[in-house]
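Thread: Newbie trying to understand structure tokens

Hi all, I'm a second-year student working on a class project, and my supervisor (Dr. K.) asked me to get a predicted structure for one chain before our next meeting. I've only ever worked with sequences, so writing a 3D structure as a token string is new to me. If someone could post the tokens and maybe explain what I'm looking at, I'd be very grateful. Here's the chain:
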Amino acid sequence: MIETLRQQIDGHALVLVRHGETTGQSSIRYYGRTDVALSELGRAQMAAVGRSLRHIQFARVFTTPLSRASEGARIIAEGRALEPLVLAEFVEVDFGRFEGLTAEEIKRRMPAEFYHWRRDRLDDNYCYPGGESRKAFNGRVAAGVTRMLELWSQDDGVAGPALLVAHRGVIRAATKLLAGVEPVIELGSIQVLRRVGDGWHPLALDLCASPH
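---
Reply by user tm_fold:
Sure, no problem. This is what the structure looks like when written as tokens:
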């Protein structure tokens, strides 16, 4: 698992972690802007990630304004003298009228919108009903990635990897932008990208740490 990559996670490596399960059942429900907290399982998932990454000396820890990610970042970074930096650009997509619903609930309550969502959700022109467009979301995440990399490089000459704890949509958009990959990104999963020259290479995708 992550231990086998330890020597490759150096000052050119970016570790991206999706937050854990929430009190709002993020494993089955679409929560974007709603600030649902981590559940006890979610905290256990973040603690497991923290144990997996305990030997990594991060130079920077980044997170989003939503508590499920920011608390996860604090749990993972526990014991390190690092305060997570909050980047507003990395808040999750606004699901609009889909917010808080399961896929089955969306299909039953809004069948026409469900059809268009399933058909067009990856299209830049798609917009969640009453929510955010894919184009606006991707642009916002791209701006956040640029700011994150600038803050990381301005780290007073202290070399070290960076950690981002965020949401599925944000991590998927960031990994596609940087390395051209779109992992599954389950709750609590770990992605590791490494900068090589002017590009990025995926070292590991969809790693999961056991909470037990």
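A couple of things are worth pointing out once you decode it. The chain has one domain: 2-93+132-208. The two ends are 15 Å apart (CA to CA). Feel free to ask follow-ups in this thread.
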